[in-house]
Write a sequence for this structure.
């Protein structure tokens, strides 16, 4: 049964209890629609990438490494918010299943993929004691640290052997390395991003640059802004260097001015783009929680970051559908969600390595993960009374 949700999200009191309930419902929807044992193996669970799913998707012939990393990260959020035996067990199963399905180990040829997984499993171990990926985290850290290419003027390439150095690889690599104590390298990445990919006209972060030629891909994506905000917040805390807070301030206000409408983050579509707005929301919440300083500018920056998260979450909730009593989030949080009628029109891998959107983007696990991630982020900022 499908129903349009009453448009009450903007009017409801923004309490931690409310957002915790909504995060629970978002988690429940992912669990019931998308989670499935990997190849019927006991003690495994992985995210089916579409709902309704094709036969290839149900059999995990099709899977997306970096989407699964964000599934783990969302599961960490839920376990940290309300720890339960079930959530901790699920986390272990998700991490274990990722390793099994990847076939060749924890790593692959894409540095952005590996950075996202490193972030997720580091959090799982640090906050929930999930040790299944301890050896994998060592391998991931080594790959990310050694990917830095001084011969090209610095930067981490998008994938092994590529001449494309982009924010989606460098931002999460920097965050992962900072959390692993590699502050000097993380700071080098931060400086490289600011020098090479910040657009002086808008202060937003561009997608990437081909090196050594210098050709810029000037596309603007919400998740590029999110990972840089997250990296600057980490470094502001751990290094005390004021340049990181200054960069975060500049970028935050550029995001507010150019990538939101009425405080609601712009949607990125489906496929890989389905995660873009959710990633920005995650790191806006982190900025709101972590950015140090008691000066009026710093206090206001934390409030602004939290406000964007709350307004985006209220819009996403208001525009959700309810399918059999569970939320289905829209690809664009400012517009009503659409229910996918069938598995027809599934997304696919392109020759460039990205995943296209399904015909109805709400079908994609990426879109629904963004909704869950957003509800968890809204809980975090409301619990901190921001």
């Amino acid at each position: 049964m499908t129903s349009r949700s009453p448009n009450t999200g903007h009017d409801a009191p923004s309490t931690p209890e409310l957002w915790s309930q909504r995060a629970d419902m978002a988690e429940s929807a992912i669990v019931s629609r998308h989670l499935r044992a990997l190849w019927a193996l006991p003690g495994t669970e992985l995210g089916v990438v579409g709902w309704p799913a094709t036969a290839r998707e149900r059999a995990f012939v099709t899977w997306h490494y970096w989407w699964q990393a964000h599934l783990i990260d969302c599961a960490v959020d839920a376990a940290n918010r309300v720890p339960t035996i079930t959530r901790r067990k699920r986390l272990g199963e998700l991490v274990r299943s990722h390793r099994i399905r990847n076939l060749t180990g924890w790593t692959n040829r894409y540095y952005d993929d590996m950075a996202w997984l490193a972030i997720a499993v580091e959090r799982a171990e640090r906050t929930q004691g999930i040790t299944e990926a301890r050896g994998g985290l060592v391998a991931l850290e080594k790959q990310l640290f050694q990917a830095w290419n001084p011969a090209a003027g610095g930067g981490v390439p998008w994938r092994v052997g590529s001449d494309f150095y982009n924010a989606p690889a460098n931002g999460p690599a920097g965050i992962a390395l900072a959390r692993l104590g590699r502050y000097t390298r993380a700071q080098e990445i931060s400086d490289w991003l600011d020098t090479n990919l910040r657009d002086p006209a808008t202060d937003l972060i561009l997608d990437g640059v081909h090196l050594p030629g210098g050709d810029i891909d000037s596309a603007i994506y919400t998740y590029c802004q999110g990972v840089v905000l997250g990296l600057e917040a980490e470094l502001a805390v751990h290094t005390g260097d004021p340049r990181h807070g200054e960069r975060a301030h500049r970028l935050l206000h550029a995001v507010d001015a150019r990538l939101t409408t009425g405080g609601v983050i712009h949607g990125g579509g489906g496929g890989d783009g389905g995660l873009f707005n959710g990633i920005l929301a995650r790191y806006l919440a982190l900025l709101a929680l972590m950015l140090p300083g008691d000066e009026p500018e710093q206090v206001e920056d934390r409030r602004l970051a939290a406000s964007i998260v709350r307004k985006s979450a209220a819009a996403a909730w208001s525009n959700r559908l309810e399918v059999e009593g569970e939320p289905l989030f829209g690809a664009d949080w400012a517009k009503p969600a659409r229910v996918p009628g069938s598995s027809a029109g599934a997304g696919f891998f392109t020759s460039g390595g990205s995943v296209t959107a399904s015909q109805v983007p709400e079908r994609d696990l990426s879109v629904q993960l963004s909704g869950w991630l957003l509800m968890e982020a809204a809980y975090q900022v409301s619990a901190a009374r921001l």
About this structure: The chain has a mean pLDDT of 95. Residues 110 and 353 are 9 Å apart (CA to CA).
